[in-house]
Records
---
Amino acid sequence: MTVPTNQLTPAPDKPRVYPLRLYGDPVLRRKAKPLGVNDSLNVPGVGLQSVRQVAETMLETMFEARGVGLAAPQVGLPVRMFVAVEYEDDEEENEGGDEPLRSRVLRDFVMINPVVRVINKKKDRSYQEGCLSIPGIYEEGVPRARAVSVQYTDLDGVQRTLEADDYLARVFQHELDHLDGVLFLDRLPAEVTEDYRKELLALQQRSKSLLSDLANAERLRRERSGG
């Protein structure tokens, strides 16, 4: 959500990471809104931050969660931005291990208002796919275009175009889905979601608890700032 800068008190401290929104959180099902590079974002429980601050913290959040991509709705912001990274080797979402992921980064990306165009319509179903908002659940068979072109705005306001294939193309398509309120399980047969019914119900309960904690944090922040 973007807000006029005169309506909020700036966040006093930049958090190192954001809490991840989990399956069942309504923000994950909203269609995100376009974002301007110079907009200000009201981060729940934190306050006003610049787009650059949000992007940097999203990257840190993604690294800590051992992810390959993270969309703004996954940290509670319904705006069209995602971050992603290309590692030296393919990294599955939530993959374990102690090795710092930053040591394996080839490129990282911050994409604002991305638009994906398919350049190879042949579908690939060979990779296992997961999601930081649905931890512990992984499935093969999610159909993704083998190659895409992404038009986006970077943090300096420059319009860019990037082509990607195979695993990186899958990452970009996964993150763009988040901006349209689509989760990777939606692209699989309904019985797959049903198979994980117990796990998803547990995530919904965790999500409700997290939303309650965030609401309390936001209330305290506003009281302290006099807002």
Note: The radius of gyration is 17 Å.
---
Amino acid sequence: MDYAQWHAQSLCPDWDMRGVVTHLGMMERVLTGWLPESADDTPPLDRVGPYHEEMAALDDAAFAARVGEIFAGRRADLALLTEADLARSSWTPIGPRGYGEFLKIRVFDFWVHERDISTPLGWPCDDAGPRAEIALGQVTDSIGYIVGKKIGLPDGASIVFHLTGPAGRDLPVVVDGRAKAVDHVEHPDVELTTDTVTFIQLAAGRIDPQRQIDAGLVTWTGNDQLGDRAARNLRFTI
């Protein structure tokens, strides 16, 4: 990346491209060498301040090299993990989980932030494979919350999300007291179609729903009011 690219605006309103990479490197620096002893054992967050001081003092070339070193160290850690390590109880940003589940959250974070950079710069990304499946899984695991709380689909209503492209699938959801994913809906009230990348980016609050609707990247059939509400209220991340 040249200077203009490093300092171009990312999809994160508060960060340029270097800011996104700084964030990713920060968490990997914190996690390097750490394995949770229990769900109450938090990562060594005292590393955050020194990390930011170190990175702020580096020019772009030295910054890129240092991030590469941090990522290499973290990959070496991950390569040594056993199944028992993945099953450890762990602190995570969404509450106690297994350490393997924490790593899935990290994959989701990287997947989204990678596109925070690549989408504005027009760079291609690999939108298939295990990382895409894990990133999409973080959204689909919360689809009941998204439909019930964010979209606010009324009781008795149903929706099917038709996701196209790599990792594509159908996601039927019904509201019966509470919203929940189901295997099949015979006659859904609304059907919304979009590609998996747009779906995840909308769920992460990274892109403007209206622009995706205007571009024909998000469409729906059935109940127009519910479809419009669904298209505009997929965001579930903080």
Note: The first helix runs from residue 3 to 6.
